[in-house]
Amino acid sequence: MLQRRKNRRRLAADERQWLPNVNWRALLITSASLAGLVAAGALITLALNQPIESVAIAGTFQRVSPSDVDRAVKQSTRGAGLVSVNLARVRAAVRTLPWVDTVSVERSWPRGLTVRIAEQVAAARWGESGLLNTRGELFASDVHHIPLELPQLAGPEGSESTVAVRYLAMHGRLLESGMRLTALRLDARGAWEFDLDNGVTVRLGRKQVDERFETFMATAAKIVAQRATDIAYVDMRYTNGFAIGWRGAAGLKGKTADESREA
Length: 263
Hints:
Blueprint: H1 2-18, H2 24-48, E1 54-58, H3 66-76, H4 87-95, E2 100-108, E3 112-119, E4 122-126, E5 130-133, E6 138-140, E7 152-154, H5 160-176, E8 181-186, E9 192-196, E10 201-205, H6 209-227, E11 231-235, E12 243-246
Parallel strand pairs: 1-3, 4-7, 7-8, 10-11
Antiparallel strand pairs: 2-3, 4-5, 5-6, 8-9, 9-10, 11-12
Helix pairs in contact: 3-4
């Protein structure tokens, strides 16, 4: 029994030897220092978190009203200070305004914000009352005053980017040949056609659209350039050629290499 008690005492002594030697005085000093830093930080934040008193708005404004921007900023910063203000929320509020493309918001010490705006650039009309920007994005769907000089693009819902990309690819090529693309349409079946500024419509159909456009540029475009006033449309939906619809003619007079027409 005595031996067992000695063994237990020895084990307890061994365990005590493994306990860390804590410098409680240093620990208390460190904790107090951290608490002081936190308190000082809170006081500094409180001192800097002044009410927002001014909003500077920068940008070139043609369609966007600076007063609308100012109103959106003030509504989204109500009750917030310069430190606590949620800049992402301010950007989102301004971004909802019509014709606003990009927004940046910065703090302007000690009591202001600086808001920089870039307006949308309309590159084409979409459907009856929509507008596409230079990235092919539909940014306005119910515009009452649409610039008529813009090309008119159309297609099924969700095809805006696809139609815009094809328009850009065709536009430059046609300009090089002295023709301007005024309209490009994609129908629900996937068939393409476009209008030129000389009044001629070119039908490309659903298949081999790029190849048919290249064929038009290499062959039919020359005839269109020479006799645009006589031509109503050019149909490229033929296996090895194309057909021309003449204005005032009773039927098709064609320049076709193959009479079998595809979709």
